[in-house]
Amino acid sequence: MNRRTSLFLTVLLLLPLAGGLAAQGGPLVIRAGHFPNVTHAQGVIGQAKGWFEKALAPDARVEWKVFNAGPSVIEAIFSGALDLAYIGPNPAINGYVRSQGEALRIIAGATSGGAALVVRADAGIAKPEDFRGKKIASPQLGNTQDVALRAWLGAHGLRLRERGGDVHVIPVANPDQITLFLKKEIDGAWAPEPWASRLIQEANGRLFLDERDLWPGGQFVTTHLIVSAKFLRERRPLLKKWVRAHVELTDWINKNLPEAKRTLNQEIQKETGKALPVAVLEGSFSRLQVTYDPIRSSLFASARAAFEAGFLGRQRPDLSGIYDLSILNEVLQEKGAKPVP
């Protein structure tokens, strides 16, 4: 064991017991996180309907934390302030690599799809070659969409400006992308939903590429459920209750889409102060699928792309232990459903 791993393990041992400390005789507090986003539907709707609280009662209650950036989620996992969360693939990969596999595990999928390359309708972009000399935004350096954008450009023989090419990739927060579209200061953006739909509906954007078209069967992970390794070890029975509720909520969403969309939008308004316009909500859902399948192959492909882009260090990371789908498959077997690979 090297010094870095030893130090990380020492920090983990000094953290409080997994799960928040319960009042004497009261239920355990589970600290859970999600983004106020359509691609985090199980977290958003679960909070709105008290879905997980009902499933965990009387043994535990849920303390929800709303995040706006993946790195903040990972830091909360590292510090022991968060037990589980809905999050995108690249922050989870980064957290796993930084902790040398000690901090977290992916235990279920949440969303497939829901990302797109949108260009300004008047930017003169009709084919990949037209991106030369253009400014294209991604939400954050090294995040899931940023990696996808860089990989797509490279696959089409387009080089980034910092590597001697003439395509300028600019990290711009999703809300600011709309302003820069309207000011014609950027020419396109690789964005997750609902921001891709907002660029189309509100900022004279045009769909250039639905990311689903790049993946086998149109399936790729956008959001999954992660858990701290400590919580997984110490609270497995409670975690199984959560995963069962997650599977049941996923099925409920897919069978009751109109009601699910309304509930999600009402909770987004509660959490952000503004509901999504109906056209944006419908556009977003047209490009995503709510699922408990983690679509593992797409995460490993994204990790390869992130490594090749220089985001995961000099040595290709070993991600063979990043998944623990044993609880998910136990739940699926009990329900007579097909296990996920």
Describe this structure in words.
With 341 residues, the protein is of the alpha/beta class. It has two domains: 3-114 and 219-334, Periplasmic binding protein-like II (D-Maltodextrin-Binding Protein, domain 2), CATH 3.40.190; 115-217, 3-Layer(aba) Sandwich (D-Maltodextrin-Binding Protein, domain 2), CATH 3.40.190.10. Helices cover 43% and strands 19% of the residues. It is built from 14 helices and eleven strands. It has helices spanning 3-14, 41-49, 51-56, 70-79, 89-98, 144-155, 174-182, 195-202, 229-234, 236-255, 257-272, 278-285, 296-308, 326-334; strands at 28-34, 60-66, 84-87, 104-113, 115-120, 135-138, 168-171, 188-192, 205-210, 221-228, 288-290. It has a six-stranded mixed β-sheet, with helices on both faces. It has a five-stranded mixed β-sheet with strand order 7-6-8-5-9, sandwiched between helices. α2 packs across α11 (257-272). The longest helix has 20 residues, at 236-255. It is globular, with a radius of gyration of 20 Å.
Structural topology:
Layout: H1 3-14, E1 28-34, H2 41-49, H3 51-56, E2 60-66, H4 70-79, E3 84-87, H5 89-98, E4 104-113, E5 115-120, E6 135-138, H6 144-155, E7 168-171, H7 174-182, E8 188-192, H8 195-202, E9 205-210, E10 221-228, H9 229-234, H10 236-255, H11 257-272, H12 278-285, E11 288-290, H13 296-308, H14 326-334
Helix pairs in contact: 2-11, 4-5, 7-8, 8-12, 10-11, 10-14
